Amino acid sequence: xxxxxxxxxxxxxxxxxxxxxxxxxxxxxxxxxxxxxxxxxxxxxxxxxxxxxxxxxxxxxxxxxxxxxxxxxxxxxxxxxxxxxxxxxxxxxxxxxxxxxxxxxxxxxxxxxxxxxxxxxxxxxxxxxxxxxxxxxxxxxxxxxxxxxxxxxxxxxxxxxxxxxxxxxxxxxxxxxxxxxxxxxxxxxxxxxxxxxxxxxxxxxxxxxxxxxxxxxxxxxxxxxxxxxxxxxxxxxxxxxxxxxxxxxxxxxxxxxxxxxxxxxxxxxxxxxxxxxxxxxxxxxxxxxxxxxxxxxxxxxxxxxxxxxxxxxxxxxxxxxxxxxxxxxxxxxxxxxxxxxxxxxxxxxxxxxxxxxxxxxxxxxxxxxxxxxxxxxxxxxxxxxxxxxxxxxxxxxxxxxxxxxxxxxxxxxxxxxxxxxxxxxxxxxxxxxxxxxxxxxxxxxxxxxxxxxxxxxxxxxxxxxxxxxxxxxxxxxxxxxxxxxxxxxxxxxxxxxxxxxxxxxxxxxxxxxxxxxx
Length: 518
Fold this sequence. Notes:
Layout lengths: L38 E7 L19 H8 L2 E3 L2 E2 L5 H10 L28 H7 L3 E7 L43 E5 L8 E2 L2 E2 L2 E2 L5 E3 L12 E3 L8 H19 L5 E6 L20 H23 L6 E7 L7 H8 L16 H4 L3 E4 L8 E3 L3 E2 L3 H8 L16 H4 L12 E4 L5 E5 L2 E4 L28 E4 L15 H17 L9
Parallel strand pairs: 1-11, 1-12, 2-14, 3-15, 4-5, 4-11, 6-10
Antiparallel strand pairs: 2-13, 5-7, 7-8, 9-10, 12-13, 16-17, 17-18, 18-19
Helix pairs in contact: 1-5, 4-5
């Protein structure tokens, strides 16, 4: 879909693909002649909605000054999407450039002790950039599985779901995690650090301390999690503060040790994923209750990392990206009712859904001197596009066995107006494993309802009611109906047929990026 925003107005030259190699970087290439490749910092929030950020929603009850400033200094994408309505599949897509429904995980998410999802030998963004001379770090929530060893000496298999951490031998190194998948350094948690059975930080391949304390879990309102095993002293409210400090320190240490070597930092927050437990200094800082305060903490984390980059004098050669792994949690309805804050505004749906609120997310990028400040772009993009974009930045060409669903988003970020849309189409996937496909203004949902939440059974209203409820699917013209209020399934059978056939083609061929395509 051609953008109606200022994406096509920025008069910036596109980065040349004939790039010069820089001494000391091996096969690394430059993003612009005469320069070394940029540092890349990719910040991924957890369950942050399209309407939670001030620069996307003027009616937001949550102050987000650091995120808003990042947008003012860079570009704000208005039609960016996650490949899934939940976190594990999105994270798989971010790092591999491949839709997760092509793996064994056809619905839902992984949990704390689950086996690895990324296949051995599969190229990741970190692995690609490492091949081109980058130092790489993953700090935060992993949620893509690792190989834990049980006390009987066997490894947790793909068929098992271990809930009892006492079955795990934590004296044995954890295998097949970030440090085996292209990252030089990892500090974070196996899955959701405040909900998923294991409450411990992991550094590289070992837990930081021994998880030996049984934790009963807690319930109530926006504060809930599962019973599990934790390291004594593990502080739920301090998780994102610790992760932010780690990322800031890693950047500073890297610049001090090797200032001429580019780096890639993947910082995966756990906030504002429930439980909504903001650190004490953020309580009461929003007008949207505990969840709003937690989102204010997200903004602080972004500010901490951006400030570190600016203070160290590396901002001119650093591409900063901030986005979210899916839409907001269902507690958004309680927050909307009590505080008047709409986390998904102006979209229908929420986390887990195939409606726009489930996967259309904030996406902001800053790269001084390359990205024109204060611009917006309406190009349709997906978070799977990171690996193809990284390849373009370093002048590499992806093999057909990598990034099968990844397109180079660099032209959109740099303000270049392509002659045609970057993506042929984009596939959406719900928590329940149902499909939708978007091409241009048209979006086809191959099912009734949201694709996940059964709104009729809970206290969450469907507003307005779905039109054509007897139709087998839904078709929306997003150029006129962003809120997905008018189902056009019966009016345009030819569009339904065309999109359904394209979706089946993508499934059958195992890719959506053309072979040999960039």
